[in-house]
Amino acid sequence: MSSSSAPPPGMSSSAAPAGNAASASSVADTRSAIASPSTATTRPGGTRSSVIRGARVLITGAASGMGVLYARRAAAEGAAAIALWDLNEATASDLANQLSARGTQALAVGVDVSDRQSILSAAARTREFLGEPDIIINNAGIVCGTTFWEHDPERDIERTMRVNALGPMWIVREFMPAMIADAARPKRILNVASAAGTLANPHMSVYAASKWAMLGWSESLRLELEREKHRHIRVTTFCPSYIDTGMFKGVRAPLLTPMMTPQVAVDAAWRGMLRGTPVVSKPWTVKLGMAVRGVLPTRAWDFVADRIFGVYSSMDHFTGRSQA
């Protein structure tokens, strides 16, 4: 930390530790103020209002798309502090300044969630300025839409698995001990998976694999916490179909499955997280597809998914978000 009074990058002066020097005591004072919100509750799981008000929220992929919406929602509902994790620290800093100007302490942290050492560094910085998070939203994700043999082994396969599956595991593992130890207020973990984690689909092999891994891990984590009676921590897995964020540009939505707006998707995930709903699937056809797939023989399901619902051709014209 600098010896001057300037705030760290991505934190406004109102959110930075006060004083002529960013001393350890000033950081401790800031963390203490955040750690004792007047609305804290000791009820297991907490009420919906108590979950967010006074909480410290960590959001990955926070600088764009749904990440921005989660951050603004958290601020609007009374979060005490928000850590904005993103590969693009400059854009995250702009958002942090906007939130801070409206009275919510916000810290932008540049991080590559595919790299465990980068996660550890980001976690240390977050703890230093905001303390331990009460809510973790694993929102960051990437997709490569092509046949499996056209995926580059490192750039596409390994990185997709690291960003979409390993990164969220590493993040939660880093903060989980403190979340378990602090039962004074409700905790939440929202893992953004995908409908692709429930059904196979051509041109999504690696992406689907990463989201199947996310879903299996997230649900197992939920059950472990319940069995060990850590009921103040609730885990929600969000399994949406296609969302119109640009990430899936060019896709054709299947029958009865309209492309969701980011606002609709975030609202569904947010409400489910507050309630502690184990799995939120949107739209309703995601659950329908899972049910029909579970009943029909594989070849019969292939016919229905391909010829009737158009699931198997939905990625045929995928282009994705422009990298320009």
Low-confidence stretches: 1-9, 12-43
Cross-sheet strand order for the largest sheet: 3-2-1-4-5-6-7
- Tell me the span between the first and last alpha carbons: 34 Å
What percentage of residues falls in helices of 4 or more residues?
A: 40-55%
Q: What fraction strand?
A: 5-15%
What would the average pLDDT be, to the nearest integer? 87
How many helices in DSSP terms? 10
SSE run: HHEHEHEHEHEHEHEHH
Question: In angstroms, what is the radius of gyration?
Answer: 20 Å
Number of strands: 7
Shape field: globular
Give a short account of the largest sheet: 7 strands, parallel
Structural category is alpha/beta
Q: What's the gist of this structure?
A:
The chain has 324 residues and is α/β, with parallel strands linked by helices. It has helices spanning 24-35, 48-52, 65-76, 89-101, 116-129, 153-181, 205-227, 262-275, 285-295, 298-308; strands at residues 56-60, 81-86, 105-110, 135-138, 187-192, 233-240, 279-282.
